[in-house]
């Protein structure tokens, strides 16, 4: 899918799916969240930085990223999107500081 970053204006493509979070590969900020909230489970969720899948929230609500060296249990659960917000807060510094 094509995306234009609302923060820096960069154009990029990213993967798709039922549950995804997309970050801009240029500035590292989140631009898109798509999920089945209200229709089904919000996990597993693939997290993209541009075309690259950089992390995943598993069905066990653990944020895993071999690229960032992370394996962190999340407190948020299915009733809301707290797990997505929590994952975003954890990943943003890695993506903005390391130029992923």
Structural overview:
The protein has 100 residues and is α+β, with helices and mostly antiparallel strands. The longest helix has 17 residues, at 82-98. The protein has one helix at 82-98; strands at 2-4, 11-13, 20-23, 30-34, 45-49, 52-57, 62-65, 70-73. The mean pLDDT is 90. Helix content is 17%, strand content 34%. The chain is built from one helix and eight strands, in the order ββββββββα. A six-stranded mixed sheet has the order 4-3-5-6-7-8, with helices on one face. It is globular, with a radius of gyration of 13 Å.
Defining key terms:
six-stranded mixed beta sheet; alpha+beta; globular; 100 residues; 17% helix
What's the end-to-end separation, in Å?
18 Å
> Which radius of gyration do the C-alpha atoms yield?
13 Å
> Got a strand count?
8
> What value does the average pLDDT take?
90
Output the structural class: alpha+beta
What low-confidence regions span 5 or more consecutive residues with pLDDT below 50? Answer: none
**What percentage of amino acids are in beta strands?**
25-35%
The number of helical runs is 1
Could you give a quick summary of the protein structure above?
By secondary structure, the protein is an alpha+beta fold. It has one helix spanning 82-98; strands at 2-4, 11-13, 20-23, 30-34, 45-49, 52-57, 62-65, 70-73. A six-stranded mixed sheet has the order 4-3-5-6-7-8, with helices on one face. Strands 1-2 form a two-stranded antiparallel ribbon.
């Amino acid at each position: 899918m094509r995306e234009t970053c609302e923060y820096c204006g960069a154009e990029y493509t990213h993967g798709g799916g039922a549950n995804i979070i997309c970050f801009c590969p240029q500035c590292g900020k989140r631009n898109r969240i798509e999920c089945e909230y209200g229709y089904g489970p919000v996990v597993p969720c693939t997290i993209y930085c541009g075309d690259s899948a950089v992390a995943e929230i598993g069905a066990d609500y653990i944020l895993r990223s071999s690229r960032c060296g992370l394996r962190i249990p999340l407190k948020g659960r299915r009733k809301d999107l707290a797990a997505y917000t929590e994952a975003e807060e954890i990943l943003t510094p890695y993506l903005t500081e390391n130029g992923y």
